[in-house]
Design brief:
The chain is an alpha+beta fold and 310 residues long. The chain has helices spanning 3-13, 32-42, 77-89, 123-133, 136-145, 149-158, 174-180, 187-198, 205-215, 277-293; strands spanning 29-30, 48-55, 60-64, 70-71, 98-100, 120-122, 165-166, 183-185, 234-241, 244-253, 256-265. It comes from Persicitalea jodogahamensis.
C-alpha cells in the first residue's frame, strides 16, 4: 500500500476546507433546439423520464421533468462518496486506514461481499470499488462509515440539495424507500452535484479532485458513456433497478464541458438486457447531446461494438 501517498492526499484534504453556498445556478437560458431534439426522442417511451443538461461554458440548459424526484439506484453512491470525504476532511476517518471486513456486512456477492471474514482492505480500495464497479456491499459499508444515511442527508441539505436523499437504512425514510429505493434525486440536483465536484466546490478543491478521479474510472460504460468517444475525458455514475435506469455524466467536450443526467421510473420494460428500453434511451439521448454540441466531431460507436454490451 502506498501509505505515504495516502498521507499526502489526506493532508491536502485538510487544507483550505470551505463550505459552498447552497445550490443556486443563475444566468441559465433554455437551449430550445436541444430541448426539442430530446423531447422528440422521448416520445413513445413506456415510463416516466427526466432529463437535465447544462453546458458549463454557455450555461444553456435543457429541463424536462428536471425537478421531478426519481430513484437514484446506484447514483446514490455519489452522495455516499461525499459523506465519506466529509468525515475524512474532519479527521474522523483516515484515508490510509485499513478496514476489517466482517460477514455481518455482507449484502451481495460482489467483490467486497466475497471477502472472507476478518479480511483486511484499505478504505480507498473500497471507495474505488463503490464508484468503479458499483459494489453494493462496499457501498453500504461506506454509507455506515460516513455516519449513515441521516448524516449524509444532513450534509446534502447543508449544500442546498432539497430532494437528493439516502433512504435505505435511514431512520424516518422507510416510506420514501418503498417508493424510490436506496436513494432519490432529481435530474437537476444529481447533475449539479457532479458539476460542483468538477468545479472544486465540494468540501475543498483537494477533496473534489480526489472524488473526481474516482468518478473517472467507470467500468459500466455500455449506456450513455458508450456514445461519447473513448478519447474524451468523462466522469460518471449510473444506476439500474428493474423499472428505473439512470446515468449522470460530465463530459470534457472539445468546445466546452457539459453535464447531463437522465433518469427513468415506472418502466414497463424491466428486462436486464442491453436493449432494455431505458438503456436504449440513455444511449439515444447521450448521442443526441454529444452531436448537438460537437457536430464537427459527430461520432458513432464502431460497427460490431454493441456485441460487447452487458
Amino acid at each position: 500500500m502506498r501509505k505515504y501517498a495516502f498521507l499526502l492526499i489526506f493532508s491536502l484534504i485538510n487544507m483550505g476546507n470551505f463550505r459552498a453556498q447552497p445550490l443556486n445556478i443563475e444566468g441559465t437560458r433554455t437551449d430550445k433546439a436541444l430541448t426539442q431534439k430530446i423531447a422528440d426522442a422521448l416520445k413513445g417511451f413506456h415510463g416516466e423520464v427526466g432529463v437535465y443538461v447544462r453546458n458549463l461554458r454557455t450555461n444553456r440548459i435543457v429541463e424536462i421533468r428536471a425537478d421531478t424526484i426519481f430513484p437514484t439506484a446506484s447514483m446514490v453512491k455519489v452522495p455516499i462518496l461525499c459523506g465519506v470525504f466529509d468525515k475524512l476532511s474532519k479527521g474522523e476517518l483516515q484515508y490510509d486506514q485499513v478496514l476489517t471486513y466482517r460477514d455481518s456486512l455482507h449484502y451481495d456477492d460482489g467483490v467486497v461481499g466475497s471477502l472472507r471474514d476478518s479480511a483486511q482492505i484499505p478504505l480507498p480500495y473500497v471507495l474505488m470499488l463503490m464508484e468503479t464497479l458499483s459494489d453494493n456491499t462496499g457501498s453500504l459499508w461506506m454509507q455506515s462509515l460516513a455516519g449513515g444515511g441521516q448524516k449524509i442527508n444532513e450534509w446534502l441539505a447543508s449544500y442546498g440539495f432539497e430532494n437528493t436523499r439516502v433512504n435505505s437504512r435511514t431512520p424516518g425514510r422507510q416510506e420514501a424507500q418503498k417508493t424510490y429505493g436506496w436513494g432519490q434525486t432529481t435530474p437537476r440536483e444529481m447533475a449539479e452535484l457532479v458539476a460542483m465536484i468538477r468545479a472544486g466546490k465540494i468540501i475543498s478543491p483537494a477533496v473534489s479532485e480526489r472524488m473526481y478521479r474516482l468518478l473517472g474510472r467507470q467500468f459500466w460504460d455500455g449506456d450513455g458513456l458508450s456514445q461519447i468517444p473513448p478519447t474524451i475525458q468523462v466522469i460518471a455514475k449510473n444506476g439500474a433497478v428493474n423499472q428505473a435506469k439512470s446515468e449522470v455524466v460530465l463530459v470534457h467536450a472539445p468546445h466546452g464541458d457539459y453535464v447531463f443526467c437522465i433518469t427513468t421510473k415506472n418502466q414497463i420494460d424491466d428486462r436486464w438486457q442491453p436493449d432494455n428500453e431505458g438503456r436504449v434511451l440513455l444511449r439515444t439521448v447521450s448521442r443526441l447531446i454529444w452531436n448537438h454540441y460537437e457536430p464537427k466531431y459527430s461520432w458513432q460507436p464502431l460497427e460490431g461494438s454493441s456485441r460487447w454490451q452487458y
